[in-house]
Design brief:
Number of strands: 12
Shape: elongated
Strand order of the largest sheet: 8-7-6-9-10-11-12
Helix content: 25-40%
Strand content: 15-25%
Number of helices: 10
Oligomer: single chain
Radius of gyration: 21 Å
Length: about 325
């Protein structure tokens, strides 16, 4: 394809170098990894946007791109892409479901182990010369009860890993699933009350905002741990801080947080909190799969073929 014929693509998120190189080799790429700039370069010629669930693309932003045909979410989430506005404008929206699910499940389980066994505070204790004073018994995962909020691809992979630890699995979602592992609970609070560990793995967006609130955390109890690998909006940060301050839960593992990358300084006071910078889904394998899904969606669209990973609009 000649340079003149290359469709213009606007990327609004930081992408792996190999993905940037691949896009540049096939398209006229405008790379804006910090989000939509005030003055979009070549706004009248941009035919595709690459974004993700956190950054999204609004109706107002779509209106600035008069030639826009397709919006591709790099990853599974697309909650902040205005899908209704896109459909109204005849714009295709795609995502990459399942491409990072295994990696996210691994990260969630790693956080469960690290919290239960106290890896971070115990390392600090040894560094500070408190070897003997730090050898108290710690909880273990074997035989414990695991509650999963969201029994989608990631939730099922977490449940599969839990089987290796003989954990008792329960889950909450919009509805019970006949083929899902474990027992269904009709509310997050009921699930939390039956769990030693609670993992949040549901979709983000308005429907799940603050689904995990103070009442759910209180139901989890003073020996319970919560891990969030979904979206920061699902777990009420103020409620989490209040629960930690009151000793109502044992600890938390957060890969995502409201208003990220800003993290409340109050969280750093709690040694029983682990925070990673929204990278649970990042691994060489997941990045490769996400790149391939992105390139396939763009190629199918510009070849006027059916886009296999298009988001349903009805």
């Amino acid at each position: 394809m000649s340079a003149l014929a290359q469709p213009a693509v606007l990327a609004l998120i930081a992408l792996p170098e190999s993905t940037v190189d691949a896009l540049r080799s096939q398209y006229a790429l405008h790379y804006c990894p910090d989000g939509m700039p005030p003055n979009v370069p070549c706004a009248e010629t941009i035919r595709a946007v690459v974004t993700n669930g956190s950054t999204g693309l609004s109706d107002v932003q779509m209106a600035q791109l008069l030639a826009l045909e397709i919006v591709c979410a790099f990853g599974a989430g697309y909650e902040n892409v205005d899908v209704e506005a896109a459909a109204r404008r005849g714009i295709v929206v795609t995502h990459a479901p399942g491409t990072n699910a295994e990696t996210v499940a691994d990260h969630a389980f790693g956080m469960l182990l690290a919290l239960a066994r106290g890896y971070a505070p115990l390392t600090a204790a040894v560094q500070q010369g408190r070897w003997q004073q730090s050898r108290q018994a710690r909880p273990t995962l074997a035989g414990a009860s695991l509650g999963i909020v969201g029994m989608g691809r990631i939730g099922r992979l977490i449940a599969a890993r839990a089987q290796g630890f003989a954990m008792k699995v329960g889950y909450h979602g919009r509805r019970a699933q006949a083929d899902a592992p474990g027992r269904y609970y009709a509310s997050p609070a009921a699930l939390a009350a039956a769990s030693d560990f609670l993992v949040i793995a549901c979709n983000g967006g308005p429907e799940t905002r603050h689904l995990i609130n103070r009442a759910v955390l209180q139901a989890l109890g003073s020996s319970g741990y919560v891990v969030n690998v979904s979206r920061g909006s699902v777990l009420d940060t103020r409620a989490l801080l209040d629960a930690l301050d009151a000793g109502e839960i044992a600890g938390a593992g957060l890969d995502v947080i409201e208003n990220e990358p800003e993290v409340p300084a109050e969280l750093f006071r709690h040694r029983n909190v682990l925070i990673t910078p929204h990278m649970a889904g990042r691994s060489p394998a997941s990045w490769l799969a996400q790149r391939d899904a992105l390139l396939a969606s763009l190629s199918q669209h510009f070849a006027r073929k059916r886009v296999q990973l298009a988001v349903p609009t009805a």
